[in-house]
Specification:
Immunoglobulin-like, Rossmann fold, eight-stranded parallel beta barrel, about 30% helix, 3 domains, TIM Barrel, alpha/beta, about 750 residues, nine-stranded mixed beta sheet
């Protein structure tokens, strides 16, 4: 087969290094004219079709997906582009038995058939392929392309039962892959493309001669000999850290190459990419995939949510999953996609389908509904029907939260003590703990990234939380100064701004000016009592963890709490029109909740609640000092009710939408986790529950819910620009829509 065309102008088999995670000035991609309206209200399902599918079968599957309420499908089961006509998958090749598909020419023809059937029904189609997985038969013909595990010296078979190919550095494989990919895109007419396994399957997977040569060329050193490695593969080794960064850039470069090829053939097409468990550092150090790189690589980014346990315990992990979605949305804002993002959740029961839909919808994240099953056919249609009827509510929404948590990739992956390898989970767990605290307090919040700080994009935030952000570069500190000087507030904890963007000791002049303190880089160990000023009305706090050695450098700084040795612990410093608050202790680590497999929740086993209520009181007090007039206040709701806020401008005016979800059944205290959750959406006492929003000239307030046959007009009170409304019911999920008429 001869394939020619746009590929000749795009594909380069060489590889290159770019700045890890992107820079503030980096152009994510060239702007282009395209139509992406369909992704705003995405209702995506998997279309798994058999080999030798007929036109009638394709039409029937497309009709079923359309009538169910979906507007897009992702093709599955035919991901492999290298199967030859005479090739048979081996019985142990589980990946290909599940997802391999037909021989190449047949696979392309059938993907075209299915795509055309879907297009006739008005469905968008995403092609789903693999680059990193190949069969044993392929490597028998091309042994020089195999990935070699440096640790063992052997050809590597991954966890999917597939052999792996040197996709990043073997020029012959890359040339043939992109030839076939171009043919696939041209012939099928797909509207989007997602290619998996542009990853490394572990830090030692680079022993083939092509990868070795590329590393020597680009980085100037040799990887360890095959059959060895040992201590070389540790984060203490600077060459290992360069190797880790280099791998991530090969993934970015390859995905960009696919994206550019797709755009050249169909300017309206969307290149998709996702990451599993977006907040966990393993993806970077093990797989060479970094969450911050997603938007550098693709148009439309997603998260694959896989909480621990079998069956997966989705309800108990809603806070962890919601934080993933907030982080992903913040990353998406750094690219052309704006705030569009999606999530793949492997629902295994009717409850999972319902719960996961409300989790995603509360975060204004669109959902990939995975495989159509009998369970799904009973649980999903009412949700889809409601989503179709109310899809305009979810269009072009931006976070209305005025509290923001910074999730910093530099601190998560680069801090020498708490941000390399698996240790990165220490930092990330702290950030996610802060999110859990805010969820428990019913305070709407959003996430900002390193790039938001660098560019001074604080969105609607009035208070920015900086959890133990040791790495802050000069540009970020300068932007924080501007933010606070203009009237914003920052609350920082633990080790703050002791390292610059390169990981070297930082000049503390800006830190001193903003926070009124100096950190010498040392820590104090041992048990102590943290004592607040009496007038604050807060309890003393026992502290067993390390704390920073801090001294005051400004006479304007107010010490609101000290330790047993009278050293400052809580310092408040006025700066311009705003204030900077500093805690020498990482309070977020005293509000520990589940983080993926850490503090895992397993039915029938003991779980310890490590959310310190006294630490929560301190955090709540700090927020109340910093944020006198919150945009949204929720009062009288029990713990486990999600409260989030979204703003939407339309032709009729502005909507401020408060999303409420009843997840109280997943709230646990220390003890044996019950085998069955019981009533998943228990009745709530909302006699004293109300919402208060700072939105003047409100014209109407409506309650919209899948639990209601029609929306309800709610009576409300408005006084001095503050609108107050009681919430009459919350069964499963509500949206309270405050409408401000257009002037």
């Amino acid at each position: 087969m001869r394939v020619i065309g746009a590929l000749q102008a795009i594909v380069a088999c060489g590889i290159f290094i770019m700045p890890a995670f992107g820079n503030a000035g980096e152009v994510i991609q060239a702007s282009r004219e395209r139509s992406v309206e369909w992704t705003k209200n995405l209702r995506l399902t998997t279309l798994r079709y058999p080999a030798n599918i007929s036109k009638a079968q394709a039409a029937s599957m497309a009709k079923e997906a359309k009538e169910a309420g979906f507007n897009a499908v992702i093709l599955d089961g035919h991901r492999y582009l290298f199967r030859e006509d005479d090739e048979v998958y081996g019985p142990k090749e589980s990946f290909f038995q599940y997802a391999g598909g037909a021989p190449f020419n047949q696979s392309v023809a059938e993907a075209k058939l299915v795509t055309e059937a879907c297009h006739e029904k008005g469905l968008k189609v995403i092609g789903h392929l693999t680059i990193g997985c190949v069969t044993k038969a392929y490597l028998d013909k091309h042994p020089e392309q195999a990935v070699i595990d440096i640790a063992t010296g052997e050809v590597f078979t991954n966890q999917f039962g597939a052999q792996t190919v040197s996709w990043a550095s073997n020029p012959e494989f890359r040339k043939e892959f992109f030839r076939r990919l171009e043919h696939y895109i041209k012939e099928t007419g797909i509207d989007g493309l997602m290619v998996d396994e542009a990853q490394w399957f572990g830090p030692t997977k680079g022993g083939d001669p092509y990868t070795r040569a590329a590393v020597k060329r680009d980085l100037g050193f040799d990887l360890p000999p095959n059959g060895s490695g040992g201590d070389w593969f540790t984060t203490a080794n600077p060459d290992y850290r360069k190797w880790v960064d280099w791998r991530a850039e090969q993934s970015v470069a390859t995905q960009r190459q696919m994206r550019d090829l797709l755009h050249s053939l169909n300017p309206d097409a969307e290149h998709w990419i996702y990451i599993s468990s977006v907040g966990h550092p393993y993806a970077y150090y093990d797989e060479g995939v970094c969450a911050d790189n997603l938007i550098r690589s693709a148009d439309f980014i997603g998260v694959e949510s896989e909480p621990p346990g079998r069956p997966r315990q989705y309800p108990y992990y809603w806070k962890n999953i919601s934080m993933d979605m907030k982080f992903l949305r913040a990353l998406s804002e750094n690219g052309e996609a704006g705030s569009r993002s999606w999530a793949l959740l492997y629902s295994e029961s009717p409850l999972d389908w319902v719960w996961n839909y409300y989790t995603a919808t509360a975060q204004n994240t669109r959902m990939w509904w995975e495989i159509i099953t009998d369970q799904k056919k009973t649980a999903v249609p009412p949700l889809l029907a409601w989503d179709v009827a109310h899809e305009k509510l979810f269009e072009d929404c931006t976070s209305a939260a005025d509290v923001a948590i910074v999730i910093s990739t530099a601190n998560r992956l680069k801090h020498p003590n708490q941000g390399r390898g698996w240790e990165g989970s220490v930092w990330m767990r702290g950030a996610y703990n802060l999110g859990s605290f805010l969820f428990d307090q019913h305070i709407p919040f959003r996430v900002l990234t390193d790039r938001h700080l660098q560019e001074g994009r604080f969105e609607n935030a009035k208070v920015v939380l900086l959890p133990s952000m040791a790495i802050l570069d000069a540009q970020q500190l300068a932007q924080l100064e501007k933010f606070v000087s203009a009237g914003g507030s920052v609350i920082a904890t633990g080790e703050i701004a002791t390292l610059d963007g390169t990981g070297q000791p930082a000049d503390q002049q800006r830190l001193k000016a903003l926070f009124g303190v100096r950190l010498d880089g040392s820590t104090i160990s041992g048990s102590t009592t943290l004592s607040p000023l009496k007038e604050m009305g807060l309890p003393e706090l026992k502290w067993e963890k390390e704390r920073q050695n801090v001294s005051l450098v400004s006479g304007d700084a107010i010490v609101r709490a000290s330790d047993s040795a009278k050293a400052p612990v809580w310092v408040e410093h006025a700066f311009g029109k705003g204030k900077a608050v500093y805690f020498s202790v990482p309070l977020e680590r005293s509000y520990q909740t589940q983080f993926y497999a850490f503090e895992a929740i397993e039915p029938g086993k003991y779980w310890k609640d490590q959310r310190d209520p006294l630490a929560a009181e301190w955090l709540r007090a700090a927020l109340s000092f910093a944020l006198k007039e919150p945009a949204v206040t929720a009062v009288g709701f029990p713990k486990g009710v999600v409260v989030d806020a979204w703003s939407q401008d339309n032709s009729n005016g502005r909507n401020l939408q408060v999303y409420l979800a009843n997840f109280t059944a997943a709230e646990l205290s220390s003890g044996i986790v019950p085998q069955e959750m019981g009533e998943p959406f228990p009745e709530l006492d909302l006699a004293r529950a109300y919402l208060q929003v700072r939105l003047p000239e409100v014209e109407s307030v409506k309650l919209v819910s899948p639990d209601l046959a029609a929306s309800l007009d709610l009576p409300f009170e408005e006084k001095e620009g503050v609108t107050k409304v009681k919430v009459p019911q919350l069964k499963r999920f509500d949206i309270v829509v405050f409408h401000q008429k257009k002037p």
